[in-house]
Amino acid sequence: MDTEDTMTAAEVADKLRVSVETVYRMCKAGKWQATKIGRLYRFTPEQYKSITEPPAVQQKPRNQRQNIDRLLRSA
Fold first, then answer.
1. Which of 4, 11, 22, 59 could form a disulfide with 18 if both were Cys (CB 3.0 to 4.6 A apart)?
2. Would you say 6 and 35 are in contact if contact means Cβ atoms under 8 Å apart?
């Protein structure tokens, strides 16, 4: 891991406009990915991106036929 590209918890907190305690709490809860070095958390650009971008949401099938079609396409 290149230390020049990583961000500290304070930098992430500043960019997201939350407290540093919130950053640590989210990391400890496993909701945010981070690299732990000793007692400190560091964030790679990819990890920061995973925090700031919402996850892709899959639409649930409306009926059984759509469910069967979706299953056949994934096979």
1. 22
2. yes
> Which token pair is 19?
């407290």
pLDDT score, position 61: 65
Alpha-carbon distance 27 to 9, whole Å? 10
Rounded distance between C-alpha atoms, residue 6 and residue 46, angstroms: 10
Q: How confident is the model at residue 54 (pLDDT cuts 50, 70, 90)?
A: confident
8 Å CB contact between 23 and 37? no
Domains of the chain plus CATH, in order, are 1-55 (1.10.1660)
Place of tokens 């540093």: 20
